[in-house]
Write a structure and sequence with these properties.
The chain is mostly helical. It is built from 18 helices and no strands.
């Protein structure tokens, strides 16, 4: 075989695992991001109250937080690749189950988000298993695919519902890309069937995360940035309408623009942040713009709503891929990466679930958005503090 042909074959072997993992990541947000734009239609079709629909929208974040801690044990038993494959199977089954009326909508949401939680936690470990110390580039592609998945899910929700003839059928159509990801992950899992699973967690590893300063800093940074992002996703449009006088259509467009900034950041941040032992400058880049954006919304919301939105979007867009990168950079091996990922995502998404609720309750009690914005300002200050600690070039302890 000639040298160019050998190089092409080697390139394909390097690219195919990344393609399979990115394909899985592309399916990890759309199936539940598509629910929000269809809430009115789902309420009419299934005769659901507003309260019941609110529960449906809250279930994913709660499931992420509750299921994530069990993903490393699943990987230790089955292997990282098989565990990710099982998560994709659960995702596909949950999408189909949502066809079964109201019980199916709730049960299917729990099942599919449980599968997403497993894949969320273990994709960084799978990238590390495939590419070792060069996995930051692939991690960036994975995080970018997740960001794209959320945008695609929200954007195609109404067209797919119209194509399917109902909101429930529109949600079912998301099983098509999931089945494609299932086939790709199955092929990768088969190719890695001889790879041994990572070792089981050391005794007391779950509580060791809370005692290890590095692991705790990474976990809290993930949690605070998640709260900030999901609070923005939930309430920023309302704040812009009420405080800055922006029209509902324009407010929705600004929110979409802020969320879309996470896509290019996801491609750039992990490989660049991984080049240096410490990531303190990146922590500043992911928090100071958010602080400036919130301050602008508090002090002069109508003066520059586009600027405040862009600052918020830039900061949160940098913070999430940075949090995922810190999980890689602060751990020693595949098993430890999976365990720290589980800890960070479990705490992170449970915290994220409470953030939008707290901001909404403060608005209901006070009638204004300023108290909620002050709360977010305090959260971002805490994010900056723990982020600088997490960014120092240290590894978590061997007991984690």
């Amino acid at each position: 075989m000639t040298a160019p042909a050998t190089r092409r074959r080697t390139a394909w072997r390097l690219a195919l695992p990344a393609a399979a993992l990115v394909l899985v990541a592309l399916c990890l947000r759309a199936p539940f991001a598509a629910v929000g734009p269809l809430l009115a239609e789902l309420g009419d079709e299934l005769t659901l109250s507003t309260g019941a629909l609110a529960v449906v929208t809250a279930l994913p974040l709660v499931c992420f937080g509750l299921v994530s801690p069990f993903a490393p044990a699943l990987a230790a038993r089955l292997g990282v690749h098989r565990a990710v494959l099982l998560g994709v199977v659960a995702l596909a089954a949950g999408i189909v189950l949502r066809l079964a009326g109201v019980p199916g909508l709730f049960a299917g949401t729990v099942l599919l988000t449980g599968g997403i939680a497993v894949a969320n936690v273990l994709l960084p470990a799978a990238a590390r298993a495939e590419y070792g110390n060069r996995s930051a580039v692939v991690l960036g592609m994975i995080v970018a695919a997740m960001a794209a998945s959320a945008s695609i899910g929200a954007g195609l929700a109404q067209p797919l519902a119209a194509a399917g003839g109902s909101a429930v059928t529109g949600l079912l159509l998301w099983v098509v890309p999931v089945l494609a990801a299932l086939l790709g992950m199955a092929a990768l899992t088969r190719a890695r069937r001889a790879v041994p699973p990572p070792p089981a967690a050391p005794a007391g590893a779950r509580t060791a995360v809370l005692r290890d300063r590095v692991a705790l800093a990474v976990t809290l940074f993930f949690g605070f940035q998640s709260l900030s992002f999901y609070a923005m996703l939930t309430w920023l449009a309302e704040v812009l309408e009420a405080e800055a006088g922006v029209s509902p259509v324009a407010a929705g467009g600004l929110l979409a623009l802020a969320a879309a900034l996470g896509l290019p950041a996801s491609l750039v941040v992990p490989p660049l942040a991984a080049r240096r032992p410490g990531q303190g400058a990146w922590v500043l880049a992911g928090t100071l713009p958010v602080l400036a954006g919130i301050t602008g919304l508090l002090v002069a919301p109508a003066a520059a709503p586009l600027l405040w939105t862009l600052l918020y979007g830039v900061g949160t867009g940098i913070a999430f891929p940075l949090a995922m990168t810190l999980i890689l950079q602060r751990t020693r091996d595949v098993g430890q990466t999976g365990r720290l990922s589980a800890s960070a995502q479990s705490v992170g998404y449970l915290v994220a679930a409470t953030g939008p609720l707290a901001v909404g309750l403060l608005h209901e009690v006070t009638g204004g958005w300023a108290p909620g914005l002050w709360l977010l300002l305090a959260v971002v200050v805490a994010q900056l503090t723990v982020g600088l600690a997490a960014a120092r070039p240290r590894l978590v302890g061997e007991s984690v």
